[in-house]
Amino acid sequence: MVPSLVFGNQHWRKQDVALLAERISRSLNALGVKEGGTVAAMLRNSPSYVATVIACKRAGVYLVSLNWHFKAGEVQFLLEDSGAQALVVHEDLVETIRAGVPAQVALLVAPLHEDADSVARQEWPALGQQGEPLPDSQRFPFNAVVYTSGTTGKPKGVRRLPVAPQVRAEIDAEAAKVAQAVYGTTPESVALLSAPMYHSATMSFVSHACARGATLVLEPGFKAERTLELIAQHRVTHAYLVPTMYQRLLALPAEVRARHDLGSLQQVSSTGSPCARELKLRMIDWFGPVVTEAYGSSEAGYTTFITAGEWLAKPGSAGKALGSAQLSIVGDDGQELPRGEIGLIYVRQPAMPDFTYIGRAQDRENISRDGLVTLGDMGFIDDDGYLFICDRKSDMVISGGVNIYPAEVEASILTMDEVSDVAVFGIPDAEFGEAMAAAVQLKPGCRLDPATLQQRLREKIANYKIPQTITFHDSLPREDTGKIFKRLLREPYWAGVDRRI
């Protein structure tokens, strides 16, 4: 199935989207791309991007999505590492990255301004229009290659392994159930996306909307009031939003927020990054019990899910196991821990085929245990089976031999009325090995000094968890998904230090 699209002021019928996907499929076939081959896309949110996703998924062609802000060197690494045979790219980005495109990689150049009429006139793409489209695949149900951002070194490419044709239907059915829980989209849904499609979570949101034949309201980027206008105008039923978007929506004047009818919303999905308790509570108060959250990763897929009602009963939880997902909490000795104890989270989602890291088999092996994988998150499972994520193991601070989880400290700081955003991390300390530091962003017009912040924290958390170093910033560096680039904040403190913990 294919979606209908609302993009800008244009409505694309399903047959328009299908025609563009067919044109792209013919082009890839003419270039010699086959099932199991690899194609890269460097596109802004657009009908071209949606059609490329559809064409590659049907044909079992691996699709590598590149951040369109990347420069030539970044593009070159990803194209070479993934073995891409072609790059679909918007025309205005070509010159910026041309030097990084290997000679063997063909370019399919998409127009910056596209409309359904131009597709009907066969104006794009020009290559391969007279050939046959690629045949449907039976072995590659999950074809997106996602590169994990990581904190050090080069990113790792997550590639799904092919499955036998006889189990394809079973995996597809199980995956559809998982996606249905996480996103809720039906053929009658109107789904809104303004976050970049090149992220794994947003790509999953789009893929599900396509598979369900929904109407997809696609925006080039996020604007807070524009989001409210679109929800009201198109009677949006399902939306994908991340915590940074929540913050910007809530920052709108009360009269602006009250101006728009949001009663059509049935489910708001957030999966890219954890959401602070106070922030999520304010969104539920405003939007109603439609705000959901899922915990997952590029490697393992979505493994837990929680509704607004469940979250209100279990504040801070990431939910219960989704579908037939398996969860295990493991201690430092490698043994599974009992309920309530914090350890390394291991997961498996049988709805997802197994994966490999491209060219990095040992890295893949290093995260495995008894068929489950870990991405370094620390947490615990309560007596009712709900998962609580404490922090990343890589973010955990060990000060004087005591484990401190920055996420707990961040949550306490975010309850302060003056604070808009915060990141807590470890910095070198001669006596204790590591000390706590906090980078704080205040709301416009607000004032707060380090001593006052520390005094308030003493009323909430143990003294040893209170950051000794507090700095204030106009803004904090974040990815589009909302994750803070803690590495950028941490690095200046560790410069010249011959250790990282």
UniProtKB/TrEMBL annotation:
Keywords: Ligase. It holds the Pfam family AMP-binding. Belongs to the ATP-dependent AMP-binding enzyme family. Residues 5-352 form the AMP-dependent synthetase/ligase domain. Residues 408-483 form the AMP-binding enzyme C-terminal domain. One of its GO terms (molecular function) is medium-chain fatty acid-CoA ligase activity. PROSITE patterns: AMP_BINDING (PS00455). This is AMP-binding protein. One of its GO terms (biological process) is fatty acid metabolic process. Gene3D superfamilies: 3.30.300.30, N-terminal domain of ligase-like.
